[in-house]
Amino acid sequence: MDMQQLTLAEIGRALASGAFSAEELAKTLLTRIKTLDPQLNSFITLTEELALQQAKAADTRRAKGENGALLGAPIGHKDLFCTQDILTSCGSKILTGFKAPYNASVVEKLAAAGTVTLGKLNMDEFAMGSANESSHYGPVKNPWDLTRVPGGSSGGSAAAVAARLLPAATGTDTGGSIRQPAALTNLTGIKPTYGRVSRWGMIAYASSLDQGGPLARTAEDCALLLQAMAGFDAKDSTSVDQPVDDYLAALTQPLAGLRIGLPKEYFGTGLDARIGEKVMAVVDELKKLGATVKDISLPNMQHAIPAYYVIAPAEASSNLSRFDGVRFGYRCENPANLEDLYKRSRGEGFGAEVKRRIMVGTYALSAGYYDAYYLKAQKIRRLIKNDFVAAFNDVDVILGPTTPNLAWKLGEKNNDPVAQYLEDIYTITANLAGIPGLSMPAGFVDGLPVGVQLLAPYFQEGRLLNVAHQYQQVTDWHQQTPKGF
What is the reported pTM? Predict the structure, then answer.
């Protein structure tokens, strides 16, 4: 049995039947990571000792008759989820040597479900980027073409899962950072409704936008992980106290009568026409499954990127002020005084993209510019939310491309940050509005994966997973594996 080709759901069944043990599976994947990851650079830290300890504990629990769906399932965590006594770096030099004194709520919940943590995954520094090239630990390569980016900021999570080093991983999505890398590496990734998954212990980039979620190969696997991750957390003031739906039960609902909205703004200039064709092929497939289609409009989408790139950096400039070289992480050598300590520790510890966003954010929040920029951006955010609320009066889900382009070459957009920001054009509106979004595999163009995005009303994650699962029952894009992996 090719263990690395199994999905989470298949692993659960194999462990239950005794086909292999959680320890055997962990050892097989750890060996595979050591052999193949040097090509990809998807891991920052391999947690071998912890993994074997958790795998043995899972085997013991199964031997006693426990049979949880995730018991013994190997996963990895994006390196901004705090993990007790393990390096948590956020892909930044400024957190050199920082070992979190506690586990993030997501880490805690998944550990309680019996998952086995194989390591911490590479990411854009402080989750700022769309290419996974801003990491202090070097860029991550896309397993479909090692000369291209895997997308960001959860690029390490996406590359590791796509290359079958892991069946699934956690990611975070501030402006598309789960959905965009999922699209560029042929995975399924879901950003839940804001407040559905606890942000406690998830190192913040932009607090009103960040949301944790899973990356896996299938909608079924995403449902398994999200079931364990979601729920109210008293430690997180932005967590929503609302019952969690049964996502697995939602998967099997028929799509008859599903109303799909196609926003005209998604299909204009800027979209690679070949991606547009793949999106329409998905629509045709969903029609065969009983869905109906309606043209809709999201008129304020054109303002999304300017609004996002005021709000997110403003929140980042505030959140990142705690990294000052005083209590933890990187500290400059021989500071002359306190001011010198702050300036040099931050100057030497942060990378170029993080500095750029801190400066933009600080400027937008400054006394003379707050009303002109930050306040105006928040008003636009409300208009974008209103567009979605209105659209969902007429349709059940909104469908479109996840990204305007295919995965680009490493280094190609490094000198043009705006070109990179434009890659998030279809994803950031969901974060601004707080609604859930999912990206699923929809085919290939020139051997590179294409993703289709689905958006739904608040707390309708089950509907997104249902549509993706039903589509995956009649297509096999999600089963394709990159050559050499």
Answer: 0.96
